[in-house]
C-alpha cells in the first residue's frame, strides 16, 4: 500500500468511529489537540491497524508521538518490521 492509501484508511476509520462527524480531518491534523484523540481512542486505532494492516507494535514502539497525526501513524505502519 502507498502512504496515501494507508492515510486514507486511517482517516476514514478515525472520522467514522472516533471523532465528531463535523470535524474535518486531514493527514496532518493534530490528533491530540485538534481531534481530541485520547488513550482509549489510541487503543482503538492500534486494534484497527492490527486488523487492517497486520501490523503489531511492541510496547516500546507505542509512544504518544506516533499518534501526532495520521501522516505519522501511516509512516509507522509502512516502516514497521
Largest sheet: none
User: Roughly what fraction of the amino acids lie in strands?
Assistant: under 5%
Number of helices: 3
Let me know the average pLDDT: 91
Cα-atom Rg, whole angstroms? Answer: 11 Å
Structural class: mainly alpha
The beta-strand count equals 0
Into which percent range does the helicity of residues fall?
40-55%
- N/C terminus separation: 15 Å
The ordered string of helix (H) and strand (E) elements is HHH
- Which residues form runs of ≥5 with pLDDT under 50? none
Shape call: globular
Walk me through this protein's architecture:
This protein has 81 residues and is mainly alpha-helical. It is built from 3 helices and no strands. The chain has helices at residues 3-17, 39-53, 70-79. Helix 1 packs across helix 3 (70-79). The radius of gyration is 11 Å and the shape is globular.
Short description:
The protein has about 80 residues and is mostly helical.
Write the layout of secondary structure elements.
Layout: H1 3-17, H2 39-53, H3 70-79
Name its key features.
3 helices, 49% helix, 0% strand, 81 residues, mainly alpha, globular
Amino acid at each position: 500500500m502507498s502512504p496515501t492509501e494507508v492515510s486514507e484508511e486511517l482517516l476514514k476509520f478515525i472520522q467514522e468511529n472516533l471523532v465528531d462527524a463535523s470535524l474535518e480531518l486531514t493527514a496532518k491534523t493534530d490528533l491530540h489537540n485538534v481531534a481530541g484523540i485520547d488513550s482509549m481512542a489510541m487503543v482503538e486505532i492500534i486494534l484497527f491497524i492490527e486488523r487492517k494492516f497486520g501490523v503489531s507494535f511492541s510496547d516500546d514502539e507505542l509512544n504518544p508521538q506516533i499518534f501526532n497525526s495520521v501522516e505519522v501513524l501511516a509512516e509507522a505502519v509502512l516502516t514497521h518490521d
